UniProtKB/TrEMBL annotation:
Residues 270-306 form the DUF1731 domain. Signal peptide: none annotated. InterPro entries: DUF1731 (IPR013549), Epimerase_deHydtase (IPR001509), NAD(P)-bd_dom_sf (IPR036291), SDR39U1 (IPR010099). This is TIGR01777 family oxidoreductase. Belongs to the NAD(P)-dependent epimerase/dehydratase family. SDR39U1 subfamily. It comes from Micromonospora zhanjiangensis. It holds the Pfam family Epimerase. Residues 3-230 form the NAD-dependent epimerase/dehydratase domain.
């Protein structure tokens, strides 16, 4: 297959690129700063020569968007919104113009679209879309708004020859440097990986191997379109999530962090506490119903696999 990955130079792009390339597929990455012959220039907003790669491709997987690992200032929130909506819009325009459009367009979205909740899990059928929760910071609703507009940009695209899937992905766990597993492991190994703000909030996650297997599954399954949750079937409270991670690293100590400590820590690492404090309880309803099975359904064994691979380098 020829697979075009706009925004493919980041954490998830690297995972998909190495897996699909190892399987013998022809992978092209669209980036604002190309390096090497498989990387092609685009600006994420306007049509250009890059559309020649979309025309005749089999699959487009759009991952582009300003990183969410930053302070949620008004300026950064605006960049998070516009980079996602604009890139999805222009990918849709490129597919609409193609003489030989790809058969499927997988558009990244996020599990953050669902409500902050503890009582039940959100699947695609009767999960609650967020934005109306009480007692949470107002800007959390903006993250939901970004996700909704991101998906709407794909839905609006007039691409009748191309199946469209929105990937409501949870945190993708891989042993790579700089990824979310790396950051959480660093905290755990320093003895700082205890409960944050009580630790009752749920963490949804997916092992990289299940993520890439799910992508392949969605490419092949012509009967699946629309929003699909990419999350392991057993999300767990943050307190247990970090306990399992510490155990995988054989670190007995995990200092707790109160809400204000999390705020301070997030300020120091220039990130935002929504990433730590929002309860993301998301399950893979449609994938499971379509017959997908997970290699790593439970966090304990997934964390053991990731730490072992990380130790081996
Ligand atoms: N990582 C996760 O666990 C996770 C989970 C759920 C959803 N997501 C979403 O999935 C997408 C990919 O995640 P990731 O972790 O690979 O992100 P990442 O490492 O931040 O990579 C995103 C890529 O988007 C491109 N980009 C950044 N700002 C842009 C802009 N203004 N216009 C166009 N392109 C821009 C960058 O490519 P260039 O600089 O090369 O152009 C970058 O490599 C993101 O949208 C993220 O929000 C990630």
């Amino acid at each position: 297959m020829k697979v075009v990955i706009p925004g493919g130079t980041g954490q998830i792009g690297r995972i998909l690129d190495r897996t699909l390339t190892a399987e013998g597929h022809d992978v092209v990455l669209l980036t604002r700063s190309p390096r090497g012959e498989r990387q092609v220039h685009w600006d994420g907003r306007t049509l250009g020569d890059w559309i020649g790669h979309v025309d005749g491709s089999d699959v487009v997987i759009n991952l582009a968007g300003r990183s969410v690992s930053c302070r949620y200032t008004a300026e950064n929130l605006e960049a998070m919104m516009s980079s996602r909506v604009e890139s999805a819009r222009v990918v849709g325009e490129a597919i609409a113009e193609a003489a030989r459009p790809p058969r499927v367009w997988l558009q990244m979205s996020t599990a953050t679209i669902y409500a902050h909740r503890f009582d039940a899990a959100n699947d695609e059928y009767d999960g609650l879309i967020g934005g109306g929760e009480h007692g949470v910071p107002g800007y959390w609703a903006y993250s939901v708004e970004i996700a909704k507009n991101w998906e709407a940009a794909q839905e609006r695209a007039a691409t009748p020859g191309t199946r469209k899937v929105a990937l409501r992905a949870a945190m993708v766990m891989s042993p790579d440097r700089g990824g979310v597993f790396d950051v959480l492991s660093w905290l755990a190994r320093l003895g700082l990986g205890g409960p944050v703000a009580g630790g009752e909030q749920y963490v949804s996650w997916i092992h990289e191997r299940d993520f890439t297997r799910a992508i392949r599954f969605l490419i092949e399954r012509d009967d699946v379109a629309g929003a699909v949750n990419l999350a392991a079937p057993h999300p767990l409270p943050q307190r247990e999530f970090m306990r399992e991670l510490r155990s995988a690293w054989r670190m007995p100590l995990g200092l707790p962090a109160t809400g204000w400590m999390a705020e301070l820590g997030a300020f120091v690492i220039r990130s935002d506490t929504e990433l730590l404090r929002k309860s993301r309880r998301v399950t893979p309803g449609r994938l499971t119903d379509a017959g997908f099975t997970f290699l790593h359904p439970r966090w304990g064994t997934a964390a053991a696999d990731l730490t072992a691979r990380r130790r081996r380098g």
